[in-house]
Structures are given as structure tokens and as C-alpha cells.
Amino acid sequence: VQLVESGGGLVQPGGSLRLSCAASGFTFRLYVMSWYRQAPGKEREAVAGINNVGGITNVADSVKGRFTISKDNVNTTVYLQMNSLKPEDTAVYYCNAHTLAGDYWGKGTLVTVSS
């Protein structure tokens, strides 16, 4: 299983970014995919998940109305569209695959929201 995140970077408050997670090595369409994040000095927290039929799950209150998770089963990629970014969204964002064989993680992509 391989999960490779991309799309992070430096953005000003109020800006947008789209994160991507390219997945391989398992039957992507069958399992729940999620985004997590870990801010400096804080524990990792769930941001949003999407299940095998495209249902959205576990959206953090702090991102509701601003972040949208989606997936492309053909290209085995999960996305996180992030709008109206705030400084408190600064974190390393991780992709997670929840499979029958266990949970798998990417190495993360850093998002920094700062003026």
C-alpha cells in the first residue's frame, strides 16, 4: 500500500488549496479514505472521511463549510479542497486508508496559512 500526498504549501489567510492523495496497492474503491492533520504541539485529528459509496463522514466541526473531501475511483486519488483557510489550519495533512488489513498512512504534506 502506498499513499502519496501533494498540494501543500504556503497560503495567505482566506486562500484555498487542494490536497491530493494518490493511492496504490489495494482496492481503492472498497475502503474508507480520510484526511487527518497534526498541528505543531498537538495530537493528530481527523479532518474528513469518505466511504466506499462516496458518503462523507467524520467532518471536523472546525472545517465544516470550508473543506470538502472527494475521491476519484478511476485515478485512485482522494482530494481535500480547502477554502477560506485560517492560520489555525496550519498543520501537516495526512492521508489515511482504512482497510481490512489495517490502517495505512502517507508521509504527509505541510500546509502553512500565514500572511
Word description of this protein:
There is one protein chain. The protein has strands at residues 2-6, 9-11, 17-24, 32-38, 45-50, 56-57, 67-72, 77-82, 91-99, 102-105, 109-113. By secondary structure, the chain is an all-beta fold. The strands form two sheets. Strands 2, 4, 5, 6, 9, 10 and 11 form a seven-stranded mixed sheet that branches. Strand 7 and strand 8 (77-82) form a beta hairpin. The model has no long low-confidence stretch (mean pLDDT 96).
Q: Which helices and strands appear, and what pairs or packs with what?
A:
Layout: E1 2-6, E2 9-11, E3 17-24, E4 32-38, E5 45-50, E6 56-57, E7 67-72, E8 77-82, E9 91-99, E10 102-105, E11 109-113
Parallel strand pairs: 2-11
Antiparallel strand pairs: 1-3, 3-8, 4-5, 4-9, 5-6, 7-8, 9-10, 9-11
Instruction: Please report the total strand number as a whole number.
Output: 11
Unreliable spans: none
Reported for the largest beta sheet, the result is: 7 strands, mixed
Rg over C-alpha atoms, rounded to the nearest angstrom: 13 Å
Quote the beta fraction: over 45%
| Helix segment tally | 0
Shape: globular
Give a summary of the structure in a few sentences.
With 115 residues, the protein is mainly beta. It has strands spanning 2-6, 9-11, 17-24, 32-38, 45-50, 56-57, 67-72, 77-82, 91-99, 102-105, 109-113.
Please tag this protein with its features.
single chain; 115 residues; 0% helix; 53% strand
